[in-house]
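This section describes the prediction task in plain terms. A model, or a person checking by hand, is given the sequence of a single protein chain and must write out its three-dimensional structure as a string of C-alpha cells. No templates, partner chains or ligands are provided. The sample shown here is typical of the held-out split.
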Amino acid sequence: MTSVLLILQFALAVILTIIVLLQKSSSIGLGAYSGSNESVFGAKGPAGFLTKITFGLGFLFVVNTLALGYFYNQEKKSSIVDNITIEQNVPASGVTPKVAAPTAPSAPEAASVPSAPIAETNQSK
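The expected answer:
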C-alpha cells in the first residue's frame, strides 16, 4: 500500500510542477509555450482551468502526504533506539551491566625466568 502511495506522490509532484510552470506569470515564464489556441480551455483561456487543476492536484498531494505519514507510522511501531538495545542485549531498563576493566599482564614467575650459567671454579690449591 505504501509503495503505491509513494509512486503516486512522485507522479503528483512531477505533474504539479509542470502545471505550475505552464501558468502565466507576470514575467512570461513557460506560459508562453502553452500554445496560441486558448479556446480549448474555455472563454477565459487557460488561467481559470490551470488554477483549478493546480488546486486539485495540490489538495491531492497534501492528502497523499498525510496518508503516507500515517501508513509509515503504522508499519514502524518501534524506534531505531529500540532496535539497537535489542541487538546489543542490553536490558530494557536502561541499566547497563558493569563490565570488569581489563587487567595488565602479570610479571613472569621467577621459576620460568632463565638464569645465567654458573661457572665452575677450580679451587684446588
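For orientation: Residues 38 and 44 are 8 Å apart (CA to CA).
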